[in-house]
Write a structure and sequence with these properties.
The chain has about 120 residues and is α+β, with helices and mostly antiparallel strands. The protein has helices spanning about 5-15, 45-55, 60-70, 90-105; strands at about 20-25, 35-40, 75-85. The longest helix has 16 residues, at about 90-105.
């Protein structure tokens, strides 16, 4: 690939609209979910798979189930997303989203891999 083409692809990538949002990793065998809010939903599944395959979440039920059941037992879904264009304080937005979605789905104990939020 020549330099001009490479630069054009890099420019296109940087100009792409990005979305922040709520993602879910679901264990399709037992129905438990892991919920998170992320500043960019693009390619996030690859990020989690890489970490789980490298035992990054050791000492967690999610990692234990991943190790025992394998990647094919899990699915990934973006539950909600919105353009990042107008966001002034991403950290605040993600915190508010997490609170809202944790209340809605209660991904704790038998239902999920998350720990309840602390105020």
């Amino acid at each position: 690939m020549d330099n001009e083409r490479k630069k054009a692809l890099q420019r296109e990538y940087k100009e792409m609209t990005t979305y922040y949002g709520v993602i879910q990793i679901k264990n399709n065998h037992n129905g438990k979910i892991f919920l998170d809010t992320v500043p960019n939903t693009k390619n996030r599944w690859h990020f989690y798979k890489l970490n789980l395959c490298n035992n990054f979440y050791r000492h967690t039920d999610l990692q234990t189930d991943w190790n025992e059941q394998g990647e094919t037992a899990f699915s990934y879904e973006v539950l909600w997303e919105k353009k990042t264009d107008d966001v002034i304080d991403m950290k605040f937005e993600l915190k508010q989203l997490k609170k809202e979605w944790f209340e809605k789905l209660q991904p704790f104990d038998e239902k999920g891999y998350n720990k309840p939020l602390r105020d």
